[in-house]
Structure prediction request, 476 residues.
Amino acid sequence: MNGTLAERVWAWLHETFPERQVYVRSDGRVQFFTFGPALQAALAGLSLIFLGWVAFATVNVIFKDRIIAAKDHRFQQAQSAYENRLADLQLSYDEVNGALVSAEDKFKATADELQAKQNTIMGFLDRRQQVDQVLTNSSMPLPADNSAAGSGRESPNDALEAPTPPSSIGSGNYGGSSDITVNPQPVKPQPRTAKPAHASLLDFSGAVGRLAGVLFGPKKEAEISPATVERHPILKRLAAQTERVRRMGTSETMLMARAQGEAADGVKEIQAVLRHTGINPDQFQQQLNQSEGVGGPEIPLESVHIEGISDTAFQQAYLRASAVLEQLNELLRGMRHVPLTTPVSGSQFERSSGFGPRVDPFTGHYAFHPGIDFAGPWGAIVRATAPGKVVWAGPRGSYGNMVEIDHGYGIHTRYAHLSSILVHVGAKLGEGSPVGKLGSTGRSTGPHVHYEVWYDDVVRNPRNFIEAGRHVLQQE
Prediction:
């Protein structure tokens, strides 16, 4: 095939440039030159190249300025495109860098909020643990100088005061604690005299709280464009981690709600114990508030903000749980002054007479017995059944030698027929403190202690208090 192509080319050259002869006559002589097809083709090619160069040089000379201007224009266009591309890259970098900084800030804010929630929960759990220790250890001793004193409206000084741990609210520790700050709002007019509130401790609402949430609520952070997140895997992973940490924070809210429920169960248990003794829990709560002299403006929970935490649901759950825990704490303070034990204990003692109607041992007539009698050996120690202050110590008619103790909150106990008295009026006693020795003074047929419980100036059945105390011990 190669040979055929060469033959065609050779044939085309001979056809296009046939052999020519040029004759030259000079001095009667004739000479001729023969130009073959190859030479003619070479001369033709050289001529075309020369003519092309001449044309190019002519055009270049004539249109030099235009050519230079066109080249300069193309260079400027290339440079402008390069600069625009560089600017686009810079804008893209700035966008990614800004998005990354924003995502890092959001992640840090989410992580810091989670840490603040955990520190807040730790402080709450510390307080809850101290309350539980009292709830599960009824035999915890009380200082003798911190017992109830004065009249039935006087507050005991030995109430449980849970110290605030370093990580709890208001500690001022910047290592991770949170501070409760109340948004400044006008306080509603308050009555001039304190009155017991009939609303629930958890029922806090009103326009002030809602207005505070609108004016002073946490501001939303700038959102990152989803398209920007999708274009960059790093931002996508960081956004996923931020969402994971945020979901972890929602479990903290559920934990606080559960803690509120457990504290509410504790309140219900104490209220059930009080009902078993015959004491109205709501009335007892009012007496606690009146005896302790509490008060102040009513600020709705919606206007309270925990510094470092923007989760409204968690804030409300924590504040409500704290309110219930405080109610539980108050009831525990009062319960420690409710007589739930017997003045004597041991196998050598037995109940010889109960509370209520009976046949009088002296007259043989039906009569009412306002207490419980515990018979036992002469001179046995009779002990106080709850902390309080001695308001009577001496002979008192048919009671014989009697000691009466004011436990606060309208609760009194009496110990009668003692052979000797070991306390004096005004003495502050703790639970289990000796008050006297068992005897048979006054209207008595033999050695025993007559034990009475009074609440709101009405004599109550001590058996209900003792059974309630046994119920508490069984729960422990």
